[in-house]
Design brief:
Number of helices: 4
CATH topology: Bactericidal permeability-increasing protein, domain 1
Radius of gyration: 21 Å
Organism: Drosophila guanche
Keywords: Signal
Number of strands: 6
Structural class: alpha+beta
Oligomer: single chain
Protein name: Circadian clock-controlled protein
Low-confidence stretches: 22-32
Strand content: 35-45%
CATH superfamily: TULIP domain
Distance between the termini: 9 Å
């Protein structure tokens, strides 16, 4: 194997850690690091990076072991994958017509649930590009947290804050993860919404207690019309949150210790 290929293998190992290590929830039964390592070797060892069946092997492993997303791997400082948690995510936007205004949205203490019931439908590794791509389907995905919204429209200032929750049904997304440098460098995550079969959203105190129920009814009844506008913002919010989460838990995970590069 060339030096370039070996380097790419090591980098891709780090990328694969992003999704593989969360499979190993059976570690809840482990009592020390030796047992943890044995479990990781058993679960990851059959998938060989240079094999033509590597992507198929990883896809099968993801679906076989998804029930363990809730445990994480304390021995390697990997946090649970179910639920995802993000302390802080922000989004800034200006309106299409210059001078009309802009808005600033901050989401805090966000919980993302539904991963344990999801199914990975596609997995593809791109060794030379230090990239992995996988698609998932969620029968139901829920998110909740606190929001803070500030906007300026034609010189008028608007400020709102409160709790919010979002439920997505028959939902699918594709996640693309790229390592921007060598082993141990940052991971960049992009999430693209593929399909939403149903959506319900509630944002407390957005328009006031007397109007909020009516606003919820209107938004939840007409969400499909607004999806082309909302989808890019949802993609950006989720991608930002996942970039922080994945770097915190998986950036330095020693996957090459357990996964064969042959």
């Amino acid at each position: 194997m060339s030096q370039r290929s070996f380097s790419n293998c090591n980098s891709c190992c780090g990328l694969l850690a992003v999704i593989l290590v969360v499979l190993c929830g059976s570690l809840v039964h482990a009592v020390n690091e030796n047992n943890t390592d044995a479990d990781l070797q058993r679960l990851l060892g059959p998938c060989h990076m240079q094999s033509s069946d590597f992507d198929k092997c990883i896809l099968q492993a993801l679906n076989d072991l998804k029930m363990y997303y809730k445990t994480g791997i304390p021995a390697y400082h990997v946090k649970p994958f179910e639920p995802h948690h993000s302390d802080y995510v922000e989004l800034r936007r200006g309106f299409a017509v210059q001078g009309i205004g802009n808005f600033y949205l901050v989401l805090r203490n966000v919980f993302d649930r539904g991963w344990s019931n999801s199914k990975v439908t596609r997995f593809q590794s791109h060794l030379d590009e230090q990239r992995i791509t996988f698609s998932q389907h969620f029968p139901e995905k829920t998110l909740e947290g606190q929001y803070s919204f500030t906007a300026s429209v034609l010189g008028t200032q608007i400020q709102r804050q409160g709790s919010w929750n979002l439920t997505l049904r028959d939902y699918s997304q594709t996640t693309d993860i790229v390592r921007v440098g060598g082993p141990g460098s940052l991971l960049k995550v992009h999430v693209e919404i593929d399909h939403i079969g149903g959506l319900e959203i509630h944002a407390g105190n957005l328009l006031g207690p007397s109007i909020n129920p009516l606003a919820d009814t209107i938004v939840n009844g007409l969400w499909q019309l607004g999806l082309p506008f909302l989808k890019p913002m949802l993609n950006e919010l989720v991608s930002t949150a996942f970039t922080d989460i994945f770097n915190e838990s998986f950036r330095y995970f020693p996957l090459s210790k357990f996964l064969s590069a042959k």
